[in-house]
Amino acid sequence: MNLYHYASPSTFYPWAGKLIPWFAALALILAAAGLYIGFFVAPTDFQQGEGYRIIFIHVPAAWMSMFIYVVMAFWSAIGLAFNTRQSFVMARALAPTGAMFTFVALWTGALWGKPMWGAWWVWDARLTSELILLFLYVGVMALQAAIDDPRRADRAGALLNLVGVINVPVIYFSVKWWNTLHQGASVSLTRAPSMAQTMLWGMLIMALAAWMYTIAVTLVRARTLTLERERQSEWVRARLEGQP
Amino acid sequence: MLRFLFTVIRRDVLLAARRRGDWLTAQFFFVIVVSMFPLGIGPEPAMLRSIGPGVVWVAALLASLLSLDRLFADDYRDGSLEQAMLSPCPMALLTLGKAIAHWVINGIPLLLIAPLLGIQFNLPAAALWILVLSLAIGTPILSLLGSIGAALTLGLRGGGALVTLLIMPLYVPALIFGAGAVEGVLSGSGSEAHLSLLGAFLVLSLLLAPWVSAMALKVSVE
User: Fold this and answer.
1) At residue A193, does pLDDT exceed 80?
2) CA dist., res. B175 & res. B13, Å (int)
């Protein structure tokens, strides 16, 4: 299989168009199954009651928020190393979804924190580093939005992304140590994962649904970006004229 | 190679020395930001002592960001940046020299002013020493990481605010370890661990930042 073949915009565009419905359908089915398990099958938690059920949104969103940042960095590195335009398109298309999941993770975390800890927000290590991750996403998107030349915007964003991904572990550990120094273990997020089997399954299925959703949405966005950037080329004109 | 580095540093420091107004603005900005906090929070000595290290450090971050968007912009406008980029010396040396000059111009004065501000915040003498030491290790990090942001946003509209948005999250470890070292003295738990980690972060940024900002300059100027 020649990977460069798929890296060409004229191949990518129709190919992505064919894949999108499949991933979207998978996302819908998995989300329906995951939510069904989450709300009807999974037992009530003996400590947290029904309130814990937000975990089925919260944990997959938090996972995706971190994972997407790493995938963005991967595409950025590929783009800078091999000079492939489509890689930058992918990195750029992922950013809004990543920021959205980071925001959802923070939002649902606040909703969960209020009944459980009695506070919307605590300066816990995970919350703080998730907040900084949101700032990193916003930084990359703001930089790319401020640059008009797409070539420069791609490269500048990719560099910032790589710097960010090197920095994320440093930030995480610094925040963690800062937190243990400042406040005692008034809030402990790190309990043993002693959850019921069905809860775990619900969470994993929801995570898969979020994954499929991310792929579908990213491909849609990447297709739009591709069309915008290649508007001068032959195949886009042929395609646009072919349509009624 | 070393001569090239020294030339870059010397040129920038000389330029700053000839334009003292610009240079002093950032220093007074630092003093004023720090002095606003007691006015906003209240003059209670115990409270001021506990927030002092963090306030001084946050003000140092802001003061270093204030002067960052001009790091490459002046040279870019008069064309000397492109001439420097054409030279056979590696561009990482150029950005390293720029970052060092930025530190000499903006970082070292902060070290001299910080103890005075610390006294305003009722910090004991031992903590003042650590404050200066943590700033001495930490402010080069601010200049180095900042040079990446300055290179990425070169010539963009709203560059100053954008640099803040890009670089502030990356400053978080420096802020935590720097202010943490001083608070370690105040709480009696010691500051060596924080200072060592700050030093490690400095080494990491010294290793990577000049190189990344050289790549960023290439992207921005081409």
Assistant:
1) no
2) 26
Reading the block at residue B183, the tokens are: 């608070």
Are B146 and B10 in contact, with CB atoms under 8 Å apart?
no
User: Which pair of tokens denotes residue B9?
Assistant: 């540093």
Is residue B90 classed as helix, strand or coil in its secondary structure?
Answer: coil
| pLDDT tens column, B10-39 | 998 898 888 888 788 888 999 999 999 989
Predicted confidence band of residue A2 (pLDDT cuts 50, 70, 90) = low
A170-174 long-range contacts (CB < 8 A, ≥24 apart) are A170/B173, A170/B201, A170/B204, A171/A129, A171/A132, A171/B169, A171/B170, A171/B172, A171/B173, A172/A125, A172/A129, A174/B172, A174/B173, A174/B176, A174/B177, A174/B197
Asked if this assembly's ipTM is beyond 0.95, the reply is: no
Nearest Cα neighbor of B163 from B142, B175, B146, B139 is B146
Residue B141: domain span:
2-221
Rounded Cα distance, B90 and B96, in Å: 10
Give chain B's domain count.
1
CB-based contact (8 Å) between A176 and chain B? no
Cα–Cα distance for residue pair B185/B133, rounded to 1 Å: 12
Angle at A202 between CA A200 and CA A207, to 5 degrees: 95
Residue A36 has pLDDT above 80, yes or no: yes
Which residues of B sit within 8 Å Cβ distance of A?
148, 152-153, 156-158, 162, 165-166, 168-170, 172-173, 176-177, 180, 183-184, 189, 197, 201, 204, 208, 212, 215-216, 219-220, 222
Cα–Cα distance measured from residue B71 to residue B62, given in angstroms and rounded to the nearest whole number? 15
Q: How far apart are CA A162 and CA B208, in angstroms?
A: 11
- Residues A202, B180: Cα–Cα separation, whole Å: 41
Nearest to B99 by CA among B3, B15, B209: B209
Give me the amino acid identity at A113: G
- C-alpha closest to that of A73 among A95, A41, A45: A95
Mean pLDDT, range B133-154, rounded to an integer: 93
Q: Which residues partner with A45 through β-bridges? A: A49
* pLDDT at residue A3 in the model: 66
The pLDDT value recorded for residue B43 is 84
Do B182 and B134 touch, CB atoms closer than 8 A? yes
Q: How far apart are CA A175 and CA A180, in angstroms?
A: 9
What is the Cα–Cα distance from A7 to A9, expressed in whole angstroms?
6
3-state class of A198 per DSSP?
helix
Contacts of B157 in chain A (CB under 8 A): 146
Alpha carbon A22 to its chain's center: 19
Instruction: Identify the pLDDT of residue B137.
Output: 94
Two tokens, residue A29: 């089915």
